[in-house]
Amino acid sequence: MVNEQIYEELSIIHKIYYRGLMSNASRWKRELLWVVTSFFVICLSFALLGQSSADVATTIEKTNTAVVDIEKASQLINSMPVAIDADVEATELVVDGEHIAYFKTRLEADKALIALKNNYRTKSNTPERVSFVEKVEVIEGKVSIYDFDNYMTTEKAVEYLSTGSLETQIYTVVKGDNLYDIAKDNNLTEENIYQANPELDENKYLQIGQELRLLVPKPLLNVKIVKTATLVEDIDFEVEEQKDDSIYEGRSKVLKAGILGKQKVKATITTVNGKEVKRDVLHSEVLQEPSAELLAVGTKVRPKSGPTGEFICPLTSYIVTAPFGQRRYSHVHKGVDMALPVGSSVKASDGGTVTFAGYKGSFGYLVIIDHGNGLESYYAHLNSIDVNVGEVVGQGEVIAYSGNTGRSTGPHLHFEMRLYGTAVNPANYVKIPGLN
Ligand SMILES: [Zn+2]
Predict the structure, then answer these.
(1) Which pLDDT band, with edges at 50, 70 and 90, does 314 fall under?
(2) Distance 312 CA to ligand 1 centre (A)
(3) Is 99 within 8 Å of 152 (Cβ atoms)?
(4) Is there a single domain that holds both residue 366 and residue 377?
(5) Are residues 338 and 399 both part of a single domain?
(6) Ligand 1 mean position, distance from CA 331 (Å)
(7) Are residue 108 and residue 60 in the same domain, yes or no?
(8) Do the domain assignments include residue 246?
(9) What pLDDT digit, counting tens, does each position of 44-73 carry?
(10) Do 109 and 69 have their domain in common?
(11) Are residues 211 and 239 both part of a single domain?
């Protein structure tokens, strides 16, 4: 019990002595402080020593002495700030009424505030009105050593004021988002986002409407810049839709690309920490009118989606030029080749899910449809593709247009069927007229 008291008093003395040294109180005050604190440290150390080494039978007297000393010490310590008048000269920075930091001089505090503003000043010649969103006070004066903690340097202050603490914000994914851009827009890295969202799967796409936690710095001081500038901005174009019964429902095709217009705008722009928060247009002049986009929207009823279990020939008009199993120099032909003009419609042999739609080596442009039960159909050397991976198509639906891409010696469709990954004769599944 007595030991604890002594330790407590020692820590108070240490605190007073340390703060006194840190202060710029006059020299004689600091020396007096040194003498007084040293005296009590010695007194208390003796009391502590007597307390810990004595055995129970002989300690009563010493313990009493120790207690008396502690009482004396307490009295003196309590009266010390008054006796020594230990104030610290400091310039205090106060933001919205809250103490932020102490500086040695007013110059250092001002330097920190100017540096913070300079972080967001643009280098243009346009005059800018730079201020802080918060109410900032710089107060020169004396601080009791009991309240004083430490002086802050200009560099430390700039970092502290602009970073402050981290705050969690919820971000909702919108169409066209990707992690890289979300991170960049919030001054974060993709790694930061993964750390704040441990459940996020790197191999999965972001979903529209999905919520992400963003741990973003919440600055203690926010820099507001107001300037009037003249700039050229885009004017959005309208989209004119027209129904088209040759395109399947849910699909669309741009018939004529829209062109953005341009306008010269004089505006008062307000930014906070470099991000635009307000734009008041004072005057605008159209330089170029936008040109509308023309979009064909499909109305054709889709064939029943998904596999039927039956297969049909993917083409209507063609000449078979190579059957399945034909021997070639280095390999055996894995599909049926059907010659026809570039740009002819290619239909899904049966319904299923598109698992590949793109360019693949000697296949050229290729579509692969998974029909379930281990069966897949391949459509190769295409000129263009109308489907996307993951799309469920119906039997007879036009999925692509024939071509002459990849390793091909003339316009034709290479039609292939695979059972659990091994090419099989399409004739076993589908009747291809003209194939012997
Ligand atoms: Zn072929």
Answers:
(1) very high
(2) 18
(3) no
(4) yes
(5) yes
(6) 11
(7) no
(8) yes
(9) 676 666 655 444 334 445 444 444 455 665
(10) no
(11) no
Tell me the CATH number at 197. Answer: 3.10.350.10
Residue 295 class from Cβ within 10 Å (0-12 exposed, 13-18 middle, 19+ buried)?
A: middle
Q: What is the mean pLDDT of residues 101-117?
A: 93
Whether residue 61 lies inside any domain: the answer is yes
The residues whose Cβ lies within 5 A of ligand 1, an ion, are 335, 337, 414
Total count of domains within the chain: 5
Q: Contact at 8 Å (CB) between 159 and 115?
A: no
What CATH number should be reported for the domain holding residue 285? 2.20.230.10
Nearest to 385 by CA among 359, 362, 406: 359
For 65, the domain range is 2-84
Q: For residue 382, how far is its CA from the centre of ligand 1 (angstroms)? A: 12
In contact, 185 and 169? CB cutoff 8 Å: no
User: In this structure, which amino acid lies at residue 83?
Assistant: A
Residue 152 maps to a domain: yes
**pLDDT at residue 203 is higher than 90:** no
| Averaged confidence pLDDT in the chain | 84
In a domain, residue 305? The reply is no
Question: What tokens does 381 get?
Answer: 């050397």
DSSP codes joined into one string, 27-58: HHHHHHHHHHHHHHHHHHHHHHHHHHHS-GGG
Q: How far is the CA of 324 from the centre of ligand 1 (A)?
A: 8
Ligand 1 centroid to residue 310 C-alpha, Å: 22
How many angstroms separate the alpha carbon of residue 311 from the centre of ligand 1? Answer: 19
Q: How far is the CA of 218 from the centre of ligand 1 (A)?
A: 62
CA of 335 to the centre of ligand 1 (A): 5
pLDDT, residue 364, reads 95
Cα of 346 to ligand 1 centre, how many Å? 15
How far does residue 316's CA lie from ligand 1's centre (Å)?
18
How far does residue 373's CA lie from ligand 1's centre (Å)? 24
Amino acid at 176: G
Residue with tokens 């442009």: 365
Q: How far is the CA of 334 from the centre of ligand 1 (A)?
A: 7
